[in-house]
Write a structure and sequence with these properties.
Pfam family, one: Amidase_3
Low-confidence stretches: 1-7, 9-101, 106-123
Bound molecules: zinc ion
Number of strands: 10
Keywords: Hydrolase, Signal
CATH class of the largest domain: Alpha Beta
GO molecular function: N-acetylmuramoyl-L-alanine amidase activity
CATH superfamily of the largest domain: Zn-dependent exopeptidases
Organism: Lachnoanaerobaculum saburreum F0468
Structural class: alpha/beta
Oligomer: single chain
Strand order of the largest sheet: 1-2-6-3-7-10-8-9
GO biological process, one term: peptidoglycan catabolic process
Number of helices: 10
Mean pLDDT: 78
Strand content: 5-15%
Length: about 375
């Protein structure tokens, strides 16, 4: 019985093996066909999914870019960070609570899509955040006027992770009735400008000049800042608007310290007080040993000079008239407290054109200079 059973099993398995062999041969082709077809289907569906995702992301980028032109509502969604920790925390949060629930949902959808679409990019959408002076930051205690807030605009999907502090010169009511130390070590000013050489204190924020057409310098610098902000955002930079309105209650030290702690480079926009349409130049670090050996100038003056040269090259290449060699030495409060590459750029003087078209050309020149400085 056992023998017979074994024989039957052997015969049966022989038949099955033979059948399986044939079936395998003919099925082999079908299977490969099926597998090719199914992978085509899966590629197709993946592609169409990616296209859909891309569309969603693109739509949101456009939507958020539009939002930058209406900063008032967006600004309200951010509480001003009071401490460094809070600032860092606020930085991490790319979506903040807003007044309306629908907007909240829209924002969370937006973030989800950005995460899906471009993990590698610094994608925070073009949101804004107010940043005030933190009393714990180095040199903050030298400031006298610091109740105002700078506003950080984040680049969209094309973000490169570099933040530029755009400082619209002047525009601080009451700024000329306060005085601050020229240098953090209390030493005297080495060149004469708005404040004479030898002085140890300077006006906290001067009022600036008035153009020959009656425009206050602070109005032109703010217009310039807004045009430059848009140009830089379009190139992927985050922009820290030190003054994001006609007035900001931040003196030159507060502006500098905020830039030091929240950006990669600080560019202050000015026009000079002469009336010869002499062209653009940057305020170079005075070649005075005692000044160049004082911190934080000692550790940073070479960076200031390199940035200044890049900006002048960019402006020149875009057709802007340059004064002399594009440089004038000046002992500035800004330079004296800067711990990042930092420049005061004078874009012309009282008689220079400051219409929209000129501002656009200037913004391209400055942005080209920034690109070149950061090797982009
Ligand atoms: Zn000025």
């Amino acid at each position: 019985m056992r023998k017979k059973f074994i024989c039957q099993v052997i015969i049966l398995s022989g038949i099955l093996t033979a059948c399986a062999g044939n079936a395998g041969k003919s099925r082999g082709i079908d299977e490969s066909k099926v597998s090719v077809e199914s992978s085509i289907t899966s590629v197709e569906s993946k592609e169409s999914r990616e296209v859909t995702d891309l569309k969603v992301v693109k739509k949101n980028v456009t939507a958020s870019q539009e939002e930058t032109t209406v900063p008032e509502s967006a600004k309200e969604t951010f509480a001003a960070p009071e401490t460094a920790t809070e600032t860092a925390k606020a930085k991490e949060e790319s979506t903040k609570p807003v007044e309306e629930t629908s907007k909240k949902e829209e924002n969370s959808k937006k973030e989800e899509n950005f995460k899906k679409g471009a993990d590698s990019n610094q994608v925070d959408s073009n949101q804004t955040k107010e940043i005030g002076l933190d009393s714990g930051w180095e040199y903050a205690s030298f400031s006298k006027i610091n109740s105002g807030k700078a506003v950080l605009y984040k680049a969209g999907q094309n973000g490169n992770g570099i933040t530029i502090a755009v400082n619209a010169g002047h525009g601080t009511k009451g700024g000329s009735s306060q005085k601050t130390l020229c240098h953090p070590d209390g030493s005297a000013k080495v060149t004469s400008g708005t404040t004479k050489a030898g002085a140890t204190t300077a006006i906290a924020v001067s009022e600036g000049m008035t153009f020959s057409d009656g425009t206050p310098e602070s109005t032109a610098t703010f217009e310039m800042a807004k045009v430059l902000k848009d140009e830089l955002l379009s190139r992927g930079y985050n922009v820290l608007m030190i003054r994001d309105g006609n007035d900001v209650q931040l003196d030159n030290i507060a502006r500098t310290v905020i830039a030091n702690n929240n950006s990669s480079a600080h560019i202050a926009l000015h026009w000079d007080s002469t009336s010869s349409n002499k062209g653009a130049f940057y305020m170079g670090v005075p070649d005075v040993a005692s000044y160049k050996s004082m911190e934080p100038v000692a550790s940073n003056w070479k960076k200031h000079e390199a940035l200044g040269k890049s900006l002048i090259n960019g402006l020149s290449q875009n057709g802007t008239k340059i004064f002399s060699k594009g440089r004038m030495e000046m002992d500035l409060t800004q330079t004296s407290y800067s711990t990042i590459p930092s420049i005061d750029i004078e874009l012309g003087d009282k008689t220079s054109d400051h219409g929209k078209d000129t501002l656009r050309i200037l913004s391209k020149g400055i942005a080209d200079g920034i690109d070149s400085y950061f090797g982009r």
